[in-house]
Amino acid sequence: MSQVNEGEKNNTAGMKAVKSGIWYTIASISIRAVAIITTPIYTGMLSTGDYGIANTFNTWIELINIITCLCVVYSIGRAKIDFKEKFDEYLSALQGLSSSFAFIVLIFAVIFREQLSYLIEYEVPLVIVLFSYLCVSPSVEYTLQKTRYEYRYKENILISVITCIGTVICSVTLILFFNDKRYVGKILGTLLPTFLMGIFFYIRILKAGKKFYVKEYWEYALKIGLPMIPHAFALVVLAQVDRLMIKDICSDSDVGLYTFGYSFATLLSIFTNAIGQAWLPWFNEQLDMGNRERIRSINKKIIMLGGFFTIGFITVAPEALMLLSPSSPPYWIARYVVPPVALGTFAQYLYTNYVNVELFYKKTPIIAVSSCFAAVINYLLNLIAIPRFGYTAAAYTTFISYVILMTFHFVAVRFIIKERVYDSVFYYLILIIITVFGLSLICFYSDDIRIRIFRYLYTLIVLGVFAFIKKDDIMLLVDYVKKRFLKKER
Question: Among 29, 141, 268, 429, which residue's CB has the most CB atoms within a 10 Å radius?
């Protein structure tokens, strides 16, 4: 009887993960759609200079946040297992740790405000705003993580929607208010909703956990979080260094083309991240119970789903870029950037599964070393390839770097942690298949309508054959989704 109950419990958790993943994906697409739709509003209200200043400020937030939050957010998944009955206490103390450090940094920022203003090239008030914002904004992410691991996807999505809509309303209003310095309005409008929600969730987390300092929790979080700081910086380098090097080696125009194609290709991460967000809580629970075969079986289906999305993005890239820039044909050449970047996103999707194992076993130094090494490789490859082959070479070096990073994590999990959770042969096999097929589609990136039609037919035939071969797995996944929607949640 106990085995039957355990099986039912696992099925319920698995179905919750599937339903959460579907809703995360729908919400992510909707939120991203709002961002795309509102972009013309911002570009119409802001000069190119103001638009660039506002976006660069967000980059500074991303970089400085890596330090001020101590990357302790990475500890939440494992803490949900280790401190299951005291999870609220843990989150409360975690918040106490990161906010205390951020407040100390804020004090130094106030003292050295003039020097920081000169360094990041923003007015002193904006410097103070930046560091004040980082004291409370992590509380929003902690709440999102908590709801995610407790499968409370409705609350998770509601927070994201409120933030998105609030950002649009505040940004437009404040841009009009700061008429002489409209970039200030855009910056404050972007920060204000998250800042206010951060204060609200800071108080709520503190009330729920009633802890600010617990030595055991702080040491636990720092042990996992601190090694992830270089990892987080390395990921930023992997994402941003291409553009900086293209600017130095090629031209501003090439940076624009590369960024345009890159931005579309990385929309794929909306789907892969949504799937990963839903998968991770269930994965941690199952690995903690030792259900490796079950993990391996479900994971294969999820990986195939990511592969389908990747091929879809590569197939529609030429027409999608035309729709995004209907009156700017010179931008359409950026379609050649999409395939390698999308494939890199798929490789990232694959290696994240190994990272989840490393986080489960609290082996974060391995993650940091791997990411830093991959960032160095990416820089060296760019140094060699961009001068010879132009800006599109950066897309291929990014893909190669992510594949190398995937290999690092595979070696770490298999030979250092000595864990065999996934079918790694399957991982590399599907990566090769998707890569060959994805790159072959470039041959049909033509303006000739007949070749365009052939490209879609080619994709449909190949995916149709693959779907027929894997029809049992696909039907199982479809049946799984149907059960979750038709069955009353327990």
Answer: 268
φ, ψ of residue 71 to 5 degrees: the values are: 55, 25
* Alpha-carbon gap, residue 158 to 250, rounded angstroms: 43
The sign of the dihedral angle between the CA atoms of 81, 84, 87, 90 is negative
313-360 residue pLDDT tens: 899 988 888 887 776 777 788 889 999 999 999 999 999 999 999 988
- Domain interval for residue 150: 1-226
Lowest-confidence segment of 59-68, 197-206, 277-286 by average pLDDT: 277-286
| CA–CA gap between residue 263 and residue 258 (Å, rounded) | 8
79 near 216, Cβ under 8 Å? no
pLDDT of residue 24: 62
Asked which of 189, 208, 226 is the last residue of a domain, the reply is 226
- Give the pLDDT score at 11: 52
The percent helix, strand, coil of the chain (3-state, each to 5) is 90, 0, 10
Cβ neighbors of 470 (< 8 A, separation 6 or more) are 304
Question: What is the rounded distance in angstroms from the CA atom of residue 323 to the CA atom of residue 325?
Answer: 5
pLDDT of residue 2: 45
Q: Specify the pLDDT at position 490.
A: 41
Task: Name the domain count of the chain.
Answer: 2
pTM, full prediction: 0.77
Q: Is residue 241 located within the same domain as residue 221?
A: no
How far is the C-alpha of 152 from the C-alpha of 139, rounded, in Å? 17
Distance CA 313, CA 338 (A): 8
The verdict on 55 and 70 lying in the same domain is: yes
**What residue type is assigned to position 447 of the chain?**
D
pLDDT > 60? residue 288: yes
Amino acid occupying residue 337? V
Q: How far apart are the first and last CA of the chain?
A: 19
Task: Report d(CA 479, CA 308) in Å as an integer.
Answer: 18
Does one domain contain both 214 and 232? no
Residue 82 DSSP symbol = H
Q: What percent of the chain has pLDDT over 90?
A: 39
